[in-house]
Amino acid sequence: MSNNNAQLRNQEEVTQFNRSILYWIISLGLPVLILFIPTTAHFTSHVKQFFALSLGAIFLWAFEIVPNLIVSLILPVLYMLLGLAPVNVVFSAWSNYIPWIVLSGMILTSIAEETGLLKRVACWCILITGGSYRGIIYGLTIAGVILSLPITDLTARVLLFATISYSICKALELENGGKSSSGIMLAGIFSALNPGYIFFTSTTQTMMAYQSAAKLGVSSSWTSYLINNGLITLIWCFLCAVILDLLFKSERNINSKAYFLEEKKKLGKLSLAEKKMIVILALIVIAILTEPYHKVQIGWLFPLFVGVIYLPGVGLAKPDSLKKLNFPIIIFVTATLTIGAVASSVGGSKFLADLLTPIMSGSKLYTLTSVWVFGIIIKFLLTPLAALATLTEPIVRLAQHAGLNPVPVLYVWNQSMEQVIFPYEYALVLLAYSYGYLSLKNLMKAFSIKLVFNIIYYSDCCAFLEANRFVLTSEF
User: Fold this and answer.
1) What parts of the sequence cross the membrane (predicted)?
2) Whole-number Å distance between alpha carbons of 437 and 112
């Protein structure tokens, strides 16, 4: 038996080694091939070097043959050493609020979870919907909408809802990969991801997209984004819940009310720590809603609210509260932002826009649909953050050239980043899938149907928004 185990381990090591070699060949070989493409008036040597270097980094991120942190550290330095952009451009990502709001959001979420407040909200939402199988799906959806405002870190939301969904499946002793367990796990994934586009600060993707679009004069306040996109996305969240309700009928009668009552009982009465956290979150909401008056971008205020947690008399944080945070993600986010900054500086964004414009220009509905389809295709090669950092500016240029309002085009572009068929396309979906209660067949079935409905729903909604420009209060 031990010899067989040793042989299996050796085979796995050989397979892993061969796979690693293939990944290295792709990651280094394709960028080298780009360097042999002849230069033109627009495809200059700097543009060529930028694409070669950026593509190599993106492949290394995707294949994870080198830790993402290492690639993220090296990429900006190589841009600088090769003279593709000056230091102030290469490291400009650190001078905007996105890395700081991501970090602050991670800390606030971690502290809120430690107080028990997040679990209490989830239990409350499921109990008010009855605790049945259908109630779990809609309860998780409601919780996702509520928590997408205070939890700005998308990874934290996925972890929270995947864990809650897994706990439900386990407590109810559901069959692994069955309709009931798959429906509940998918409800958790949808509840974490879908509401992220109701609020401007609920996903890094939205903030990154507007960061790139701002270079071309397209911007949005928190409130104008909510007015334009909030209701559309809220309806979409519940439409996805209906899809799950119809698609995955439970094999047996499920009543989880007793389970959630017990979980709520374990939490006890609302603690002083939870009350303090509610006050802090309420202050954040007030700061967000009053942004037009105090004129301070909300991203810069989040670090200040983190500081409030440590004030005398508040004391919500524990000594180990910061140790479990995923700090390398901050370096990764800034590295993807750097790609966009350098692309703009060397002319790479304009080059891509010139390539895309003849193909994707047409009627309003055609252009919106083309942007969505392009996002779906490009995500097979790039991570969502890398795609948004590199290609948002060309997409905005395309919209402006086609005479379209860029704001609804950005909505469609963002939505395309969330659509997958296979779990490997999106690390957060893969993370939730790894919990084990969701079968691959059911995941692909649900996400494929969601993908079809997404293009129909969002293209029509955004075409309506574009046609009624008075609805769009964003500045551009």
Assistant:
1) 20-38, 50-82, 94-112, 184-202, 222-248, 300-317, 329-353, 365-388, 420-440
2) 27
* Interacting residues of 410 by C-beta distance below 8 A, sequence separation 6+: 209, 210, 213, 218, 392, 395, 396
- Give residue-wise pLDDT tens across range 260-292: 888 888 888 888 988 998 898 888 888 877 877
Place of tokens 């991120």: 61
DSSP assignment letter at 404: -
Nearest CA among 388, 391, 412, 393 for reference residue 461: 412
Per-residue model confidence (pLDDT) at position 6: 61
Q: How far apart are CA 89 and CA 345, in angstroms?
A: 8
Domain that holds residue 459: 97-471
- Environment class of 139 (CB within 10 Å of its CB; exposed 0-12, middle 13-18, buried 19+): buried
Q: Which amino acid is at 4?
A: N
Q: Is residue 58 part of a domain?
A: no
In a domain? residue 431: yes
Does 24 map to a domain? no
Task: Tally Cβ neighbours within 10 Å of residue 300.
Answer: 13
Q: Please state the pTM of the whole predicted model.
A: 0.73
Our count of domains for the chain comes to: 1
Q: What is the pLDDT of residues 450-462, one digit of tens each?
A: 988 888 887 777 7
Return the closest-CA partner of residue 443 out of 245, 243, 185.
Answer: 185
Residues contacting residue 23 through CB under 8 Å, at least 6 positions apart: 59, 63, 65
In a domain, 281, yes or no: yes
